[in-house]
């Protein structure tokens, strides 16, 4: 007997809008900021661009300390914070790089906010990469100059949310996976799963939410350990669902910076307290704060976030060694 023809699905996920754009999960905070909020904020950011931000002693490791820290752990599972949201990781023999913003400016060319500390490693200092994970298309996460300069485009596998593949194909990458939320790929010793995020995408004037935004869970096939990389996200109801589907998480890397003013940032970035809530929602055993201490993107004092994170983590029951921050260039065992 002949099989009936397959029926094409007519329903679409709730975060896929009818106009081809994407939207945040149900239960996410509303985006209420108007021009009266945005224009003064953009003016303040323009003025801050010329101010010198001096990091505290010990915030950035020297190149010799960076090299020594990586050499100390050798081929063991580890992660190195390059600054902002860029992490160099080795998990079960696979070398990964996240959101590689390594240029001087978070913007096109010489425009956009300028970082006040250099990355711990430049493009030429990186080891051969197996996987490149990019969470969304904002300039402080998707840096065109870094993407163009990375070697090994014929073998490096790029994992991105829906709609971002073309950016990498135009720059010579041969192996690209575009994932929707909860889609997964397997690569050698790891599984990478794209996860929901509460944010938005825009790179130009007319492309708002044309590409998806996401976080990632990286799972070691050897022992099932899981690392979560949040990308950019606010807190929302979706993280309880994510915890039920993918938790528990052994180590969560969650953004803790660029949270003021709340009228603008509440729908895009978590406060340090909300980062702790995200970690608790997904069942994270350990938490490291990222997306701070590198470039001025918002109104809050640049080195306030770690103090707020420490207080919130303690109140939520995390021990001091279970939640905190890294120095730029520091390498930790995973």
Please summarize what this structure is:
The protein has 334 residues and is an alpha/beta fold. The protein is built from 8 helices and 14 strands.
Give the integer mean of the pLDDT values: 94
Cα-to-Cα separation, first versus last residue: 54 Å
Helix content: 10-25%
Please report the total strand number as a whole number.
Answer: 14
Gyration radius over CA = 19 Å
Structural class based on helices, strands and sheet pairing: alpha/beta
CATH superfamily: Ribonuclease Z/Hydroxyacylglutathione hydrolase-like
Strand content: 15-25%
Number of helices: 8
CATH architecture: 4-Layer Sandwich
CATH top level class name: Alpha Beta
Low-confidence stretches: 1-9
How would you characterize the largest beta sheet? 7 strands, mixed
In the sheet with the most strands, the strands line up as: 6-5-4-3-2-1-14
Q: What coarse outline follows from CA principal-axis ratios?
A: globular
What sequence of helices (H) and strands (E) makes up the elements? HHEEEEHEHEEEEEHEHHEHEE
The CATH topology name reads Metallo-beta-lactamase, Chain A
Give the count of structural domains.
1
Structural notes for this entry:
With 334 residues, the protein is α/β, with parallel strands linked by helices. It has one domain (57-333): Metallo-beta-lactamase, Chain A (4-Layer Sandwich). The protein contains 8 helices and 14 strands. A hairpin with a 2-residue loop joins strand 7 and strand 8 (190-195). Helix 7 crosses helix 8. It is globular and about 50 Å long. The model is unreliable at 1-9 (pLDDT under 50).
